[in-house]
Structures are given as structure tokens and as C-alpha cells.
């Protein structure tokens, strides 16, 4: 019985073992089969990096330092780039890696190009294409489709976006690329806009006009919003407020403070040679009126010491030292009376050196001898030239750049004058009349507004905007066609 039972039990044991083996084989086969068909486990195919032809050589080189042979991805990733004519809303995995703008020669009168698609920007040899990162004032920005990049920051450029498309972007791609393609670009919160204007003398016939219209904001009606739109707005006002203003003197009706506040004035320059025309008391009272309205002064003061104090501007991460000097036919304070800051080279040299040691941008305004070659019946271009004034205007202005200034601006010229790049700086020899009553000479009705754009302590650009007034004495922007003609006229005689 025992032997028979032993023999009879063997087939069942074999069946059990065989069943277990079959189960194991099926399980293992299923396990590896699933991996084979799903491409997981030992049959897993690593994720592939696909580089689109839209990427440039620099981007490809960077990407290949990230996605090396040692990097094994779970999911595929497609990397591409796309250009836009307006700043796009970025999605996860998209980076605004480059902003490029068209620029031209500093002296060019061109202001705009028209394109329908981004690629058209790169197919024209009439201008240069640079990154916003490389922009400085020695090249002139061109608008795109009449959109100026430094005014909008959302248009007026080609916006180059690098894109990473992966199902596992957050898990494996984002940690790999980190901040490599993240950049901070200029915007309204970080760019300081500073508009400089020329001569303002709200006096003589303007007093009579004010009595007629009754509202001093009348004179700023067509220019106020434009000038007030900038962070800082400057003018060189050489007429003091007084109750004795008439149609015959260079004195201002006190209501004219409303003209200045209507243009959003922040800085008034007192280097003019007429601020004392109405007497010392009026000059002192005028400074008090500016202070009461939150308007800072430079280049003049109640005393010689006060007049010599530089204006320090610290806004939006930019530090600017502004100096104002008088080297003209009069108006300077030489003692304890109010007036303009007299120019002394040793003082200018010291103040410029101190500002440069702090790392400031140095802007110097000058009331210089005036060009008096006016003509009432035709356009007289004599005053366009920087060497048309008494004395060596070119040599003097250049000497201030040689002392270390970054920009020199002539704010006394009653007619706009030429401008130039010199020794790493910029010189604007004369800005003309912003507000005045000189309507009988064509040249004196125009002015240049310099719109300066500062970013991280650097001057990115100075945009020149011409203005004009007529017998209404309401200043307005010059039309585009005439502006181009006028700029060409001025640049044709630059030193």
C-alpha cells in the first residue's frame, strides 16, 4: 500500500510543479510583454530632444550644454523659437529670450519702418538690428509701424520667444533649464523718462494774451499731455513771476505758474539771463512759488552758493547729477543776490569729478551767448550752426565733455541748433523756444524736446521731438513731414 501510494502521488506533484512553472512563465512573459509594448522597464526608450530649425546657433549651443548625453529624459521635449511683433503672454515653458530693435545712424532723420511680419525686419539692409541689451544713445531707434519701443515696451520691436514643449515640463525640463532662458527686460517701472525743453519766457505779448484768454493753461493745451506723460519734465524759464508783468517786459503774470504745472513740470532751470529783469524780490518769490508747487530748481538760486548746488536725481535705479551754468550776457549771481550760476571751470571740473566718482550720469545745461541772426521773411539757417554764436561755442561745449560730462545741452538758444556725438558723450547746442512770444521770426517759433530714456544708470536713447507755436502762442508738436525736414537741416551742419 505504501509503495502504491508513493507511485500514485508522483503525477500530482509533477502537475503542481508544472503549473507553477507555467504561471511563472506567463507572469514573466506578461511582465516583459507589457514593458515591450509600452516601452517601459528594460524596453523603455529614453525621451528625445527635438531641436526646431527656428533656433539660432547661440540657442542651440546653450541647449546642448543642458541636454547632454548623460541626461536621460522620461518624455520627449520639442524646443523651438517664435518671433512676434508685440509682446506675447507667456505660458509655462515659454521664455522671452531676446528683444531686437531696428536702429540707424545717430544723425539720421528717419524715424519709422513699416513691416507686416517679424521676418521682414531681418530682410532689409537699410538699418541695423540689435538687441535691446546692446542699445545705447549712439544709435537711433526706429519705430516699427509707428510704435516706439521705449514708449510702449509691448511693441516697436521683435520679441523672440524660446519654447519647451513636453508632457513632463514641470517635473524634468524646468529643473534642467533653471534660469538659463529667463531675462529681465526694460519696462515702464524700470525706465526713467526725462524730457528736457528749451527756453521758456512767459512774458511780453504772452501777458497780453493771458489777459485776453484768462486761463494760463491755454498755452499748454496742445503740448501739456505730451510733456506731462514723462517721469520728469524740465524747462529753462528765464522770466520771474510778478504783479508788475506787462506786454513790454520779460516778467510773468503769476497765473503763468498754471502753464508750467499743466505740462507736469518737475525741474526748472534758472541759468537764464532775464530772471533778474523784474528785480531781486520777484526772483526770490519765484523760487518760493516753484518750491510750493513741488518744482525743483537747478542752475540758479537766491544766492550764489544756492545757485551752485547740483541737482541730484535718483529714480528707478538711475542716478543723475544735473548741473546748470551761465556763460552769457548777464543774469549771473556773483554775490548774495538771486540769479544764475556763473560758470567757473574749476568748479565745473570738481563737481563733474565728484558725480562721476559716485557713478552718476552727468548732465550739464548751459546758458550761452545767443545767435541773433534772425530773419522774418525767410528761413535763415545761420543759427543752425553751433559756431554761429559769439565766442567758441563748439570748443566750450566740447570742453565740458572733456571734463567728464556725459551730455551737454544749450538751453539759451532762441532757435534750435545742431547736435553731435563727441568723445563718448552727446552735445545738443541749442533747443530753441518752448514758450515765448517771438512769432515774427520763423526759426524762433520752433524748439527741440529731448526725451531721455535711462535704464540701470545708462542712457539708452535720446529721442528728439520738434515743437512749434504760432500767433496763438499755443505750442504743439511739429508734424512728421516738417520734423524730418527740420532734423535733416540741423544734422547737415553738425560739427
What are the defining features of this structure?
495 residues; alpha/beta; six-stranded mixed β-sheet; 2 domains; 27% helix; disordered N terminus
Written overview of the protein:
It contains twelve helices and 25 strands. With 495 residues, it is α/β, with parallel strands linked by helices. The chain folds into two domains: 50-177, no CATH class; 191-491, 4-Layer Sandwich (Purple Acid Phosphatase, chain A, domain 2). The strands form five sheets. Strands 9, 10, 11, 12, 22, 23, 24 and 25 form an eight-stranded mixed beta sheet that branches. Strands 1, 2, 3, 5, 6 and 8 form a six-stranded mixed beta sheet that branches. It has a six-stranded mixed beta sheet with strand order 14-15-18-19-21-20, with helices on one face. The radius of gyration is 35 Å and the shape is elongated. Residues 1-8 have low confidence and may be disordered.
Amino acid at each position: 500500500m505504501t509503495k502504491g501510494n508513493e507511485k500514485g502521488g508522483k503525477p500530482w506533484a509533477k502537475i503542481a510543479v508544472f503549473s507553477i512553472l507555467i504561471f511563472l512563465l506567463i507572469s514573466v512573459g506578461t511582465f516583459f510583454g507589457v514593458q515591450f509594448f509600452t516601452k517601459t522597464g528594460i524596453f523603455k526608450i529614453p525621451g528625445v530632444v527635438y531641436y526646431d530649425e527656428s533656433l539660432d546657433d547661440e540657442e542651440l549651443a546653450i541647449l546642448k550644454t543642458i541636454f547632454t548625453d548623460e541626461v536621460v529624459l522620461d518624455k520627449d521635449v520639442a524646443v523651438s523659437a517664435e518671433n512676434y511683433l508685440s509682446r506675447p503672454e507667456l505660458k509655462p515653458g515659454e521664455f522671452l529670450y531676446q528683444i531686437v530693435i531696428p536702429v540707424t545712424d545717430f544723425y539720421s532723420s528717419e524715424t519709422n519702418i513699416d513691416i507686416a511680419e517679424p521676418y521682414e525686419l531681418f530682410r532689409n539692409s537699410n538699418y541695423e538690428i540689435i538687441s535691446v541689451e546692446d542699445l545705447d544713445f549712439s544709435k537711433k531707434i526706429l519705430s516699427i509701424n509707428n510704435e516706439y519701443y521705449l514708449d510702449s515696451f509691448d511693441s516697436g520691436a521683435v520679441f523672440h520667444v524660446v519654447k519647451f514643449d513636453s508632457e513632463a515640463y514641470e517635473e524634468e525640463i524646468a529643473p534642467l533649464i533653471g534660469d538659463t532662458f529667463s531675462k529681465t527686460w526694460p519696462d515702464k517701472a524700470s525706465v526713467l523718462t526725462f524730457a528736457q525743453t528749451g527756453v521758456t519766457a512767459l512774458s511780453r505779448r504772452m501777458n497780453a494774451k493771458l489777459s485776453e484768454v484768462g486761463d494760463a493753461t491755454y498755452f499748454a493745451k496742445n503740448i501739456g499731455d505730451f510733456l506731462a506723460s514723462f517721469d520728469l519734465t524740465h524747462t529753462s524759464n528765464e522770466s520771474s513771476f510778478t504783479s508788475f508783468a506787462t506786454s513790454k517786459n520779460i516778467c510773468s503774470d503769476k497765473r503763468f505758474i498754471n502753464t508750467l504745472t499743466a505740462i507736469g513740470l518737475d525741474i526748472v532751470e534758472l541759468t537764464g539771463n532775464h530772471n533778474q529783469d523784474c528785480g531781486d524780490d520777484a526772483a526770490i518769490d519765484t523760487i518760493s512759488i516753484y518750491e510750493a508747487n513741488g518744482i525743483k530748481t537747478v542752475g540758479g538760486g537766491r544766492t550764489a552758493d544756492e545757485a551752485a548746488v547740483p541737482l541730484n536725481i535718483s529714480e528707478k535705479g538711475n542716478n543723475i547729477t544735473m548741473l546748470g551754468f551761465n556763460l552769457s550776457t548777464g543774469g549771473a549771481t556773483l554775490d548774495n543776490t538771486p540769479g544764475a550760476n556763473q560758470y567757473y571751470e574749476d568748479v565745473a571740473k570738481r563737481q563733474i569729478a565728484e558725480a562721476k566718482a559716485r557713478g552718476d550720469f552727468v548732465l550739464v545745461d548751459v546758458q550761452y551767448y545767443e545767435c541773433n541772426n534772425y530773419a522774418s521773411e525767410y528761413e535763415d539757417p545761420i543759427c543752425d550752426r553751433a559756431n554761429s554764436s559769439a565766442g567758441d561755442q563748439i570748443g566750450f561745449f566740447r570742453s565740458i565733455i572733456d571734463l567728464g560730462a556725459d551730455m551737454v545741452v544749450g538751453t539759451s538758444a532762441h532757435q534750435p541748433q545742431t547736435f553731435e556725438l563727441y568723445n563718448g558723450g552727446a552735445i545738443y547746442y541749442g533747443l530753441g523756444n518752448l514758450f515765448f512770444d517771438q512769432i515774427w521770426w520763423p526759426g524762433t517759433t520752433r524748439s527741440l524736446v529731448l526725451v531721455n530714456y535711462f535704464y540701470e544708470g545708462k542712457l539708452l536713447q535720446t529721442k528728439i521731438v520738434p515743437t512749434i507755436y504760432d500767433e496763438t502762442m499755443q505750442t504743439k508738436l511739429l508734424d512728421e513731414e516738417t520734423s524730418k525736414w527740420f532734423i535733416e537741416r540741423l544734422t547737415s551742419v553738425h560739427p
